[in-house]
Amino acid sequence: MGLSRARTARSGQVYWNERRLLEILLEKRPRGYSFIPSPYAAGVIRCSSLFPYGFILVLAKVKGEPLYRRWADLYAHQKESVYRQVLAAVSALRAVGIVWTDPGPHNVLYHQDDADPSVSVIDFECIELCNGEAVVAKPEMTAIFGPKVVQQRNDRRYTRGDEDDELGDYSESMFATFKGTVVEDARK
Asked: Which InterPro entries does the entry link to (predicted)?
């Protein structure tokens, strides 16, 4: 078992949005993403002392602790690795027409083992649909790392001539798919 998120019936739209986002990401990349936990199970809660009726979403188990607890102690190369993984997660979200509106170091789990650090981005209850072209900047990165870190990294990247870290062009079809199913599922 892994992370579980329970929602009351009143917050059903939040549940459906988060569930559908994770399903779309899994459809787009069946083997999943290393930085976003895959959905394990989802359904309706019919009998619970906390939620007489509601919804539950169970995600694959991931290791880690909130990034804000470790960021200050990381070496520069570890910070760069974490930054790149979070940027890849944000790019994956943008590729399916999503802006993550509740990003922060509390929603990034950090894990260090013998290899490079790994991160898992969690908590997509606050998202907004977007046309990929409409959101050029990645406000999620600033919310997680702060404007100074983002600016320093961008300055280094452009002076070195690195390519952008995007996963590819924004997908209009994925945006349309998400937009249609969120509205459909919410009515069920």
From this structure: Kinase-like_dom_sf
